[in-house]
Design a protein that fits this description.
Blueprint (H helix, E strand, L loop, with lengths): L1 E4 L4 H13 L13 H11 L4 E3 L4 H12 L5 E5 L10 H9 L3 E4 L5 E4 L6 E6 L5 H8 L8 E6 L5 H12 L10 H14 L3 E4 L16 H4 L1 E5 L3 E6 L6 E5 L7 H10 L3 E5 L11 H11 L4 E5 L3 E5 L10 E4 L4 H10 L5 E4 L11 H5 L4 E2 L2
Parallel strand pairs: 1-8, 2-3, 6-7, 11-12, 15-16, 16-17
Antiparallel strand pairs: 3-5, 4-5, 8-10, 9-10, 12-14, 13-14
Helix pairs in contact: 1-2, 1-6, 2-3, 3-5, 4-5, 5-6, 7-9, 9-11
C-alpha cells in the first residue's frame, strides 16, 4: 500500500482565505508548499500595493475584484496574465455594478476599483461561464448593506462549488482544509490502470468538494474506495463496461484525466457538459481534440465546446516517444501524465502543475520524461 500525501483543496482554501479577510480574522501563516493558486489568493488579500497581479489565477481575479469592490475607501487595480484577462468576467462585473460598485475596465484588460459600501439586495448573475461569479457575491455578503438575494440567468455550471461556498460561509473557520479530490482522481486513475493500491491521505467520503463525484464512477472504470482513519484506500475491481457516458457539467475539472483513463482502458467514451472548457487557462476543449489526434484516435459526435465521443477499443501505444505540451495548463499536464503510464512521452512545460499540485512530479516517480 503506497501512501500519497495530497495538497489541500485549493477551492476550499481560497474561499476560507477570503472569508477570513472579510471577517477580519487572522489568515493562516503563508506556506511555501501551497499551490500557486492559494499563494496568489493570499497575496491578493494581504498586498498593500495598489496594483495586484494575480498571474493565471482566475479564482483570485474574480474573488479579488468582488472583495476589493466592497472594501470602502480602498483603491486597487487588479490584473493578470494575458490569457486570464481575456477570460469571461463581464457577468460578475455587471452584478457588482448593479449593487453600486465603482469598477472601470482599463485598456489592457485590468480593472480599476474604488471600493465602497455596496447595496446587496436582489442581484442578477449569469453563471453559465463560471460558478465563481455567484460564489464571489456570496462571499462578500457580510460587507453589503443588506442581505444578498441572487437570481440566476441561464444555466449554471459547476453548481456544487456554489454550494461549497454557502457551506463555508455558514461553518466555523477551520484550518487546514481537507485534501483535494480533483488531485485524488489522478491517483485513482493510476491505480485503475497500473493495479497499484494507494492510500490517499486527508480525504473522506463526507466532503464539501463536488469533485468527489468521481467515487460514483467506480463501476464504470473498475475501482473501489474504502475509507479509514487516514484517508481513502483505492483498490481495483472488475468492470464490464465497454462504453461509458459522463456529463461533466458539474465537475469540469475531472474531464482531462477521465478521458485519458478511458483511452488507456480502451473503452468507448462519450463526454458532455464541456461548455466551460474553452474559457480555462487554455482552450481545453480544443486541446483535448488535438490530443486525441496526436494519439490517432478518431473523434465523432462532435458538438463544438459542448460534447464529443471516441472509441479507444483499438488504441495501442507505440514504441516511439511522443513530444507533447501542457500548453501551460495544469489539467492538460495531468492528462499527459496519465497517458504516459502506457505511451512514452516528453512534455513541454511540465512545471505548470504547480498551479494546483506543486509536488506532483516528485510523487509521480518520473513516469513522464520531462525536458531539461
Amino acid at each position: 500500500m503506497i501512501k500519497i500525501s495530497l495538497p489541500i483543496s485549493k477551492s476550499i482554501a481560497n474561499r476560507y482565505l477570503v472569508r477570513c479577510a472579510i471577517l477580519n480574522e487572522k489568515l493562516p501563516d503563508f506556506d511555501e508548499n501551497w499551490s500557486d493558486d492559494i499563494k496568489s489568493m493570499y497575496n491578493l488579500l494581504t498586498s498593500k500595493n495598489e496594483l495586484i497581479n494575480v498571474g493565471a489565477t482566475g479564482t483570485a481575479f474574480r474573488f479579488g475584484i468582488a472583495f476589493w469592490s466592497a472594501k470602502k475607501g480602498v483603491n486597487k487595480i487588479i490584473t493578470g496574465d494575458d490569457s486570464l484577462i481575456k477570460r469571461p468576467i463581464d457577468p460578475l462585473i455587471n452584478s457588482l455594478r448593479e449593487m453600486g460598485a465603482d469598477i472601470k475596465k482599463m485598456d489592457n484588460g485590468s480593472f480599476k476599483i474604488s471600493g465602497k459600501k455596496l447595496s446587496g439586495g436582489e442581484v442578477r448573475v449569469d453563471s453559465s461561464f463560471s460558478s465563481q461569479f455567484e460564489s464571489a457575491l456570496i462571499l462578500i455578503e457580510p460587507l453589503l448593506s443588506s442581505r444578498l438575494m441572487v437570481s440566476r440567468k441561464g444555466f449554471t455550471v459547476s453548481y456544487p462549488y456554489i454550494e461549497m461556498t454557502r457551506l463555508i460561509c455558514k461553518s466555523p473557520l477551520r484550518w487546514p482544509p481537507e485534501s483535494d479530490w480533483s488531485n485524488a482522481w489522478l491517483w485513482i486513475c493510476r491505480s485503475t490502470i497500473t493495479k497499484q493500491e494507494f492510500l490517499l491521505e486527508g480525504l473522506n467520503k463526507k466532503t464539501l468538494q463536488g469533485d468527489s463525484i468521481c467515487m460514483k464512477w467506480s463501476n464504470f472504470f473498475g475501482f473501489e474506495v474504502q475509507e479509514n482513519k487516514l484517508g481513502i484506500q483505492v483498490n481495483q475491481k472488475p468492470s464490464k463496461y465497454k462504453e461509458v457516458k459522463i456529463d461533466f457539467l458539474l465537475c469540469p475539472d475531472l474531464v482531462q484525466v477521465s478521458i485519458a483513463m478511458a483511452i488507456l482502458l480502451k473503452i468507448k467514451f462519450s463526454c458532455s457538459g464541456l461548455q466551460t472548457l474553452a474559457h480555462k487557462e487554455t482552450n481545453r476543449f480544443e486541446a483535448l481534440i488535438n490530443a486525441l489526434k496526436i494519439l490517432e484516435i478518431e473523434v465523432f459526435d462532435l458538438e463544438v465546446n459542448e460534447s464529443f465521443s471516441f472509441d479507444a477499443s483499438n488504441w495501442a501505444p507505440n514504441k516511439e516517444t511522443v513530444r507533447v505540451s501542457s500548453l501551460g495548463d495544469h489539467r492538460m499536464a495531468f492528462f499527459w501524465a496519465i497517458i504516459g503510464l502506457k505511451q512514452p512521452i516528453r512534455i513541454d512545460y511540465p512545471e505548470t502543475v504547480s498551479k494546483s499540485y506543486p509536488s506532483f512530479w516528485n510523487q509521480w516517480d518520473g513516469i513522464v520524461n520531462r525536458l531539461n
